[in-house]
Specification:
With 177 residues, the chain is an alpha+beta fold. Helices cover 38% and strands 17% of the residues. The chain has 5 helices and 5 strands; from the N terminus they run αββααβββαα. It has helices at residues 29-44, 66-69, 84-104, 143-157, 163-174, and strands at 48-54, 60-63, 112-117, 120-126, 132-137. A 5-stranded antiparallel beta sheet has the order 2-1-5-4-3, with helices on both faces. The longest helix has 21 residues, at 84-104. The two termini are 31 Å apart.
Length: 177
Amino acid sequence: MRSPSSSAGSKSTGSSTAGGTSAAFGLSSEARNLHWLLTNLVEEVPGLLSVAVVSSDGLLLLSSDPARNNEQAVDSSSGPKGSSADLATIVSGLGSLCIGAGKLMDAGAVKQTVVAMEEGSLFVMSISDGSLLGVHATPDCDMSVVAYHMALFVGRAGHVLTPELRSELRQSMESVR
């Protein structure tokens, strides 16, 4: 697959809709690259139900939710159960809880959290500067495959998720509300 960073210019002139996600008009090449990475994660890993990238203050930056990425208005109070907005809330809370536990136990930074439930799995992985990648998956997913692909995403996204890019992604997510 080809990354959108190989295209000329720093602003998008259209949208890409591979795998149900869509990069919004006018995003920087770094933001388009993150959308592309998220699309690849969703397309390549069987069993993923929802994926969200959340800032350190709990705001949704990127989502696998097609309604959000296709710039359709979404009312988070009446959104579907298990939507990316719900996932972002859960990821943020769980991330904060685990960070607190790591500090209390003098165990250092939290790298990954996995919650295995009867009807699904939840994965949370640190990206950078407190940002988190959250994945809701089916109960029969291959946890090692999910964790591996999440680590690849984090490795590729972590160095580009600057404060400026987080701000741009927040603004693009807010514009779809």
